[in-house]
Write a structure and sequence with these properties.
The structure holds two protein chains of two kinds.
Chain A (H helix, E strand, L loop, with lengths): L5 E6 L20 E2 L3 E2 L2 H9 L4 E5 L5 H8 L12 E5 L15 H6 L2 H7 L3 E6 L2 E3 L3 H10 L4 E7 L9 E5 L5 E6 L8 E10 H13 L7 H11 L4 E5 L4 E3 L3 H10 L26 E3 L4 E7 L4 E2 L2 E7 L4 E2 L4 E3 L2 E2 L4 E2 L4 E3 L1 E3 L4 E2 L4 E2 L8 E3 L8
Parallel strand pairs in A: 1-4, 1-6, 4-5, 8-12, 14-16, 15-17, 16-18, 17-19, 17-20, 18-21, 19-22, 20-23, 21-24, 22-25, 23-26
Antiparallel strand pairs in A: 2-3, 6-11, 7-13, 8-11, 9-10
Chain B lengths: L4 E5 L21 E2 L3 E2 L2 H9 L4 E6 L4 H7 L13 E6 L12 H7 L1 H5 L5 E5 L3 E3 L3 H11 L3 E8 L10 E5 L5 E6 L7 E11 H14 L5 H11 L4 E5 L4 E3 L3 H10 L3 H7 L16 E3 L4 E3 L1 E3 L4 E2 L2 E3 L2 E2 L4 E2 L4 E3 L2 E2 L4 E2 L4 E3 L1 E3 L4 E2 L4 E3 L6 E3 L6
Helix pairs in contact in B: 3-6, 6-7
The chains are: A alpha/beta, B alpha/beta.
Chain lengths: 379, 374
């Protein structure tokens, strides 16, 4: 890593239980999105595009797949001699037992030795479950220019929804004067995106203090940021405008997929100047059969379509047989919809087969249905 | 187990002449099935066979392939023990008559001599097929033949494979002759420009050909020795998908044939994957009102119009009301609103927005030059 550079840590710890069976076998950051991507491709590609060389991915849940996925740093161009992607799970150390990560801040604290190896000037903290494109280098510039101890990325949310978020109240200069977690009466509409830049030597001290505090929940939002505010450190808000989506639930994951179908979608994954890198699987181009009927789809290589598909996102290896009908749905990698089956408003999990003539989901359902087990055909 | 052979992918031979496309790239860089290049097939065959010391020869327009092949990473050839070397030879100068595989090899004779493997497997850059070269090598070693040559039996040689050579063999598959296909018979054994022999024999044949004539190719030398009967030469029949892309018509036909589902199964299988370089393009977007049937669509496309029985390369745009039929559209081409194409090959970065209609027939497809604006 270049001297004085910024090192990134992606908090990918949680199981993501609100994604139900999708995260039974893979950690949330490894969940598929947009046909060929996994959620973690976004922060990792953003890092690569922002010129960040070293990225740690913090996880403690089922991480074999995530581990092998992110360890191939070549996917994001993070595999030169002075760059890399590292999966950091809780480790047993000589002076302490094996502890799970007790909170977001603790996950960083337990890896101070890893960070120190690279002697960074700044530390970027990211979350592993957001879909967005962002240049972290611009955020770092703001952090440097204002001489901040910490910079927190914020985005404006509709004021009536503000009480669902961590809200930053700022003064005219954009300095954060107050942080309120899910306030009943929000004073501002600037929601924290869970993206922080810290000057490392400042954060390092705070983390060591925090580790010793038995009353702390070891959380950035609830402990570290309030401590910094209380000790009059300079915290600034960095305003981000652009597409950003938390994909923590089945409905939001579905919505984020559906957003890709809009012709003018703000995320624009075809922008050559800010590519989102992923695993490019060995697959044929998408094959659309002579009898297929397709309308408004987002489709990646390795898919085979013989049936009818509308308003849907199809991932690598998904197959839609003749007479099948898929509407307003997301097919994850290697899922199959057999002859005459109907899939509506659903996410079909990886490798799941919807048998002949089966019907899943309905057009007027309130929520999106997740199908994570094979559905038997109707004889 | 370390492979007993190293691999050679030949440069574009003189006989190969694909109108238009070849002005910009060597035969190995021709597109195939929307996202592959023809050279992906020999290189993947080698890599999948465990033959991971590979030399690729290039004569004209090396850029397209140096860029595409790189260090071989896309082909699983990136460990310290693997090697993918590119040899660019410009000895053909202004006169194509000197452009032979033998002159390529003579330029690199010391390199060839220094290869540690006992055997060499040679494969062409312009043919599409799947073959386990290691199995072919073992077959060769067991057969006691001096040279093993791969062939494909066809029943349409009168008007196809006219730039290829054909073999005749006796009942024991011993090769009796190697001649140019003169189109006088439908049933022929088309030679697939693929050889297995010992490295020392290969080098001696190269030297002999070079001494005989500055314009001699290895195939011509072999043709001579079929008559002298000095060596035991044996044909091995290849089965499965086979295409020789040596003119515009064969380029068109072989690509289009991949739209037949059974042909695809023949060529692509999970246990013998054909590797290619990733471009990290996003999935294809097919918008409201688009109509796509019987097509192969590569990633990165934007389709608003109609596409039928066509191969659409990466990041192609097809505008509203446009109709693309029986065509092959190469990467980044733009087909503007309302434009109608039938039986066209549209080269990369071409933009057809001002011409309303380009119609040809399957036996004489049209060609639109690279980056042309029509």
């Amino acid at each position: 890593m270049k001297q004085g550079g910024m090192l990134a840590m992606i908090l990918a710890g949680g199981r993501g239980s609100r994604l139900h069976e999708l995260t039974d076998k893979v950690a949330k950051p490894a969940v598929s999105y947009g046909g060929k991507y996994r959620i973690v491709d976004f922060p990792l590609s953003n890092c690569a595009n922002s010129g960040i060389d070293i990225v740690g991915v913090l996880t403690q849940y089922e991480s074999v797949l995530l581990n092998s996925y992110v360890a191939a740093g070549s996917r994001w161009g993070l595999d030169s001699d002075d760059s890399g992607v590292f999966v950091l799970t809780p480790r047993e150390k000589a002076d302490s037992g094996l502890d799970v990560y007790r909170g977001t801040a603790d996950a960083i604290s337990q890896n101070i030795d890893f960070i120190d190896q690279y002697n960074p000037e700044y530390l970027l903290i990211l979350s592993g479950d957001h879909i967005y494109k962002m240049n972290y280098d611009k955020m770092l510039q703001a952090h440097r220019e204002k001489g901040a101890n910490a910079t927190i990325a914020v985005r404006p949310v509709p004021i009536k929804e503000a009480s669902r978020f961590g809200i930053m109240n700022t003064n005219e200069d954009g300095d954060i004067i107050e942080f309120e977690e899910k306030p009943a009466h929000p004073k501002s509409n600037l929601a924290s995106m869970g993206i922080y830049i810290f000057t490392w030597k400042d954060l390092r001290k705070l983390l060591i203090q925090d580790m010793k505090d038995p009353d702390s929940a070891h959380d950035f939002g609830n402990n570290i940021i309030p401590t910094m505010l209380a000790s009059n450190m300079k915290l600034i808000a960095y305003r981000f405008e652009g597409y950003w989506k938390d994909v923590g639930t089945i409905d939001s994951l579905w919505e984020a997929n559906m957003d890709l179908l809009d012709k003018k979608n703000e995320l624009d994954l075809s922008d050559p100047s800010w590519r989102i890198y992923s695993e490019d699987s060995s697959a044929l181009p998408s094959y659309i059969g002579p009898e297929a009927e397709i309308d408004r789809i987002y489709v990646t290589q390795g898919t085979v379509i013989h049936g009818k598909v509308k308003n849907s996102v199809l991932s690598t290896g998904s197959v839609i047989s003749a007479g099948a009908c898929v509407t307003d749905s997301v097919l994850m990698p290697d899922s199959k919809v057999e002859e005459g089956a109907t899939v509506t408003r659903a996410i079909i999990a990886s490798g799941v087969k919807i048998g002949k003539g089966a019907v899943v989901g309905s057009a007027d359902s309130e929520n999106i249905i997740l199908v994570s087990r094979n559905v038997k055909g109707v004889e | 187990m370390a492979a007993k052979a190293f691999g050679i992918v030949t440069s574009t031979p003189r006989r190969v002449n694909v109108y238009g496309l070849q002005e910009y790239r060597p035969a190995g860089a021709f597109t195939f099935a929307g996202k592959f290049r023809v050279i992906d097939f020999p290189v993947s065959n080698f890599s999948n066979s465990g033959i991971k010391n590979i030399q690729v020869y290039l004569n004209k327009h090396p850029k397209a392939l140096t860029d595409h092949l790189g260090t071989g990473r896309s082909y699983n050839l990136n460990s310290k023990r693997d090697r993918l070397e590119l040899f660019y030879c410009d000895h053909h100068k202004e006169n194509d008559v000197y452009n032979t595989d033998v002159s390529d090899y003579m330029d690199n004779l010391s390199v060839l001599k220094s290869q540690p493997q006992e055997y060499v497997v040679i494969a062409p850059c312009y043919m599409v097929y799947k073959q386990d070269f290691n199995a072919l090598l073992n077959d060769h070693i067991q057969s006691d033949a001096d040279i093993t040559m791969l062939y494909h039996r066809v029943n349409n040689a009168k008007d196809h494979y006219l730039n290829c050579r054909v073999l005749t063999m006796d009942q024991d598959q011993r090769i009796l002759s190697l001649e140019l296909n003169r189109g006088n018979r439908q049933n022929q054994c088309v030679f697939m420009d693929t050889y297995v022999m010992k490295k020392d024999l290969f080098i001696s044949l190269v030297e002999r050909a070079s001494a005989y004539s500055s314009t001699y190719s290895l195939a011509q030398m072999i043709s001579v020795i079929t008559k002298t009967e000095e060596y035991e030469m044996r044909g091995v029949q290849h089965k499965g998908f086979f295409a020789s892309i040596d003119d515009l018509k064969s380029f068109y036909e072989s690509n289009m044939s991949i739209l037949e589902v059974n042909r695809v199964k023949d060529l692509f299988s999970d246990d013998w994957w054909i590797h290619t370089r990733t471009t990290d393009s996003n999935p294809a977007r097919i918008y409201e009102g688009a109509d796509v049937k019987g097509c192969m669509i590569a990633n990165g496309c934007h389709i608003e119009g109609k596409a039928e029985n066509s191969i659409i390369g990466r990041a192609v745009e097809i505008g509203k009301g446009a109709v693309v039929r029986n065509s092959i559209i190469l990467d980044h081409a733009v087909i503007g609103e309302g434009v109608v194409l039938d039986c066209q090959i549209v080269d990369k970065y071409a933009s057809i927005t001002k011409t309303r209609e380009l119609i040809a027939s399957p036996d004489k497809p049209g060609y639109v030059h690279r980056a042309d604006i029509l």
